[in-house]
Design brief:
Mean pLDDT: 96
Distance between the termini: 20 Å
Shape: globular
Structural class: alpha/beta
CATH architecture: 3-Layer(aba) Sandwich
Strand content: 25-35%
Number of strands: 15
Largest sheet: 7 strands, mixed
Oligomer: single chain
Strand order of the largest sheet: 3-2-4-5-1-12-13
CATH superfamily: Class I glutamine amidotransferase (GATase) domain
Order of helices and strands: EHEHEEHHEHEEEEEHHEEEEE
CATH topology: Rossmann fold
Number of domains: 1
Low-confidence stretches: none
Helix content: 10-25%
Radius of gyration: 17 Å
Number of helices: 7
CATH class: Alpha Beta
Length: about 240
């Protein structure tokens, strides 16, 4: 199964969510106790995890509505406030996992005790979908925020997540390259460029809104309305290229 990394943005539609839902449905077909739709296909049970400072339930409802643009799912929602623990039951008996968006540091801290379980689930064939923060924390080394390096601005302050210097922290470890999100829309691409040039990361990907990068056995696939920006070290700085749908 695959890791689906989305750059954020509402109303991305079925071209972004559909492949994830299809993989979860394929997983559900071999599971017991699943409801079926009108065609007899098993309806996948998807863990939807949301971390928000206030009213996380309302945000979860919106994520579930967007997810269902890709197909019918039975949403197993866990919505917690900043600092609250995510129970282990959040990931029990599921056919897919969706981790939502918001504060990257808050998601990383809330999920940390579940990193091993999430890696086990994906290794066992459960697809993972990260939305914005959920994509950033999927990396082995996650960019959790900051907009300066050595006191010099490298990105717009609104992408900072409340942090000054660009900071990295251990992530789930589903992909081995750093991920940033809202690339073109929030100016996060320049943070990845600067982080690679400064040697903070060996390389990185910045994903536009309403765009998903699917990492699976068949290689890398991009779907949606934007681009995935790939940043790698070069002989005289960095090399930036794009992968489009």
């Amino acid at each position: 199964m695959s890791v689906h990394l989305m750059g954020g943005g509402w109303d991305a539609g079925g071209e972004v969510y559909g492949p994830f839902v299809a993989e979860a449905a394929a997983r559900a077909a071999g599971a017991s106790g699943r409801d079926t739709d009108a065609s007899g296909r098993a309806i996948p049970r998807v863990a939807v995890v949301v971390v928000r400072a206030d009213d996380p339930d309302a945000l979860a409802e919106r994520f579930v509505a967007d997810l269902r643009s890709g197909g019918e799912v039975s949403a197993h929602v866990t919505a917690v406030r900043h600092g609250e623990p995510i129970p282990r039951t959040a990931f029990a008996d599921v056919d897919g996992v969706m981790v939502g968006g918001g504060s990257i540091p808050a998601y990383r801290d809330a999920l940390e005790e579940h990193f091993g379980e999430l890696r086990r689930l994906v290794a066992d064939g459960v697809p993972y979908l990260g939305y914005s923060a959920g994509s950033a924390v999927a990396a082995e080394q996650a960019i959790i925020g900051g907009y300066r390096i050595g006191g010099v601005d490298v990105a717009p302050e609104p992408v900072s997540q409340g942090l000054d210097e660009v900071q990295l922290a251990p992530g789930i470890g589903l992909v081995d390259i750093a991920i940033d999100v809202h690339a073109a829309q929030w100016g996060a691409l320049s943070r990845v460029v600067a982080a690679v040039e400064a040697g903070l990361i060996a390389g990185g990907l910045a994903i536009d809104e309403r765009t998903v990068l699917v990492v699976g056995d068949g290689g890398l696939v991009v779907a949606g309305r934007g681009s995935v920006w790939r940043v790698l070290p070069g002989e005289q700085g960095v090399v930036v290229s794009t992968m489009g749908a």
